[in-house]
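Support request, priority: normal
Reporter: lab tech (M.K.)
Component: structure prediction queue

Hi team, I submitted a job for Receptor-like serine/threonine-protein kinase from Momordica charantia yesterday, and the status page still shows it as pending. I've pasted the exact input below so you can check whether something in the sequence is tripping the parser. The sequence length should be 755 residues. Please let me know if I need to resubmit or if it's stuck on your end.
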Amino acid sequence: MEPISNTIPFLLLLLWFVLKISGSIDSITSTKILKDPETVLSNRGFFELGFFSPPNSTYRYLGIWCKRVSVPTVVWVANRDKPLKNKSGVFAVSNDGNLVVLDDEQNKILWNSSVSNAAVNSTARLLDSGNLILQDPASGTITWESFKNPSDKFLPMMKFITNTITNQKVEIVSWKSPSDPSSGNFSFGIDPLTIPEVVIWKNGRTYWRSGPWDGQVFIGIPGMNSDYLHGGNLVIENKTYSLSVANANEAQLFFYYLNPKGILEENQWDTEEQKWEAAWTAPETECDVYGACGAFGVCNSQDTSICSCLKGFRPKKAEEWNRGNWTSGCARNLPLECEKNNSSEENGREDGFLKVEMVKVPDFADWIVASEDECRVQCLSNCSCSAYTYKTGIGCMIWRGDLIDIQNFKNFGVDIYVRVAYSDLADESGSTTKDVKAVIIASVISGTFILICCIYCFWKRKSQLKFLFKTGDMKHDKMDQVKLQELPLFDFEKLETATNHFHFNNKLGEGGFGPVYKGKLVDGQEIAVKRLSKTSGQGLEEFTNEVMVISKLQHRNLVQLLGCCMEGEERMLVYEYMPNGSLDSIIFDSKKKNLDWRKRLIIIEEIVRGLLYLHRDSRLKIIHRDLKASNILLDRDLNPKISDFGTARIFYSNEAQANTTRVVGTYGYMSPEYVMKGQFSEKSDVFSFGVLLLEIISGRKNTSFYDNEHALNLLGFAWKLWMEDNLVALIDQTMFESDYKIEISRSSNAKATWI
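Reply from support: The job had stalled in the queue. We restarted it manually and it finished. Here are the results:
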């Protein structure tokens, strides 16, 4: 028999474990309440719900905090504006099914979820995402969630929302101070302008803004790219604007935090230092603060005096300006010609535009339907138009009245054209009169040279059918050059006409290559035109690579390249037009009902045929490297065609695997060995196809699907169902409304078909 002294440590450990369990419950119901200091833990212990006191405060609040880090981090507060004075707090489901925080001593409700359609027997659970949900156990409907009622922090899987019809808003509001969670002076959310942007407000007035959204990024944030905000994306649908933030790497903990001083921070957890590090902040400089230099003023944080007036303008209040108070802004030196009574056309004196380079565009932009040239004409014809610009992804933007919140950037920003009086244009040109003679002489010499170059270029244009491409991906001399004898060349003017001057309404989408437009040739043939973005270095490489790869391929399940355009700096690829768009636009949308079980199987089979052709049956082995639903296009009969070969790689007969230091593709679809080691092969495409297959049969997107209860992505969720022998739960429920119920059940029960 063991001595009693040996069993004491075990008994103490057991006692601690029992006490730990007794202090924590897993859910809240009408019969199961939470009393201070009890807590609720999420399934995997990532987050904890309970009562807490902020630093230097004795008040008690119901909140949620992160348990995965060593630093206590509160991410949500319920009764932020009505604290408890002692530990008499109770959290419960009320008789009408709503969540309530009660002061048990005074029998007083301090906070209420205030849901009109809550079920009487509702249950509250804390998910591993940090989301507290109120759910009808009978239907599974979530009637309320903390993610749609945030405090001062924004977590992955949340969405900022603004609905201009219902006035629904999901925004974060700062604490009043680090020890006071009550609503502070600052809030952050989406401003649903003509061209939306995100804004920090101070007491309801704009304090900082991101600049307009161009479909991929906010153009007023320096250094922002399409991978910014951990895959953030802004979607506009039925007057509802929503900005989501995805977390591709679950191991990387981060959140967005609006601190009491009005600074928005992206905080990431430093595992070595065991603390939160601010990876990005806004506003960061004086110039980031809204309207720092007033109307028609430009702010540059690198200058000694951060504010200056636009050319053609002067300080409105010179004394204040000299004292460093720039908020009064600037005024025009001279009135505009269009504002005078006499006609500017009659006296030959017409207003014009001065180019202001690399700036954050002013606030209150209007979007109009116009090409780049038409944009200038429309602004000039309207006397109230103060400036204009044309930005890829947005189109023509014009400003009326004062120009507010212009900031000068270094190696970033948009060029805008500011309207000035004729005299200011003359002054601008007059400053160079001393150089006129030199310019004339130089022009004569250079003009002769340019004429010779033009003749050469014309001859070169004639021989473009033998245009040669080179790429760093090609390692063998025999593959270094590609002749395009059979690839038709399109004139730029024809493509410009076909796309209605690359009109915004004809835009089908945009990627790393650049925008894609729908067009119609003179003979009535519909086409898709991929236009290389002039600012995309990646796009130029992808253009070259795509022509090299796809010019060698021909298969019914690969998109057909009709030709290309190479004039001046213009680089365009012309494809057959796919009327039904990309696969993701159907399977992840209400239109997915058009895809019954049989049609989905046919699509899967034909994608396999296209992939098999790339890997085994074509003259060259091609590894696509970016196979996903958005790169599968559907023709009029919903036949799939693999597209977008900008990142594809040609393999040779003796190659089975390759390595790269430049990992390209889409997170969520890339195989682990490719992401971590840069190794790719046929297996890389097979992995991507596996993800795509799961998306097709489930109707769920891997990069945005999240099983809140178990903190799983789509792959993890599928594996869990596999292990539970419950694959039928993975299948898109809309397909059970079809005539293929028996076939679906048979397929889901036949495990061999999933290996």
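The longest helix spans residues 436-462. DSSP finds 14 helices and 45 strands in the chain. Let us know if anything else looks off. Ticket resolved.
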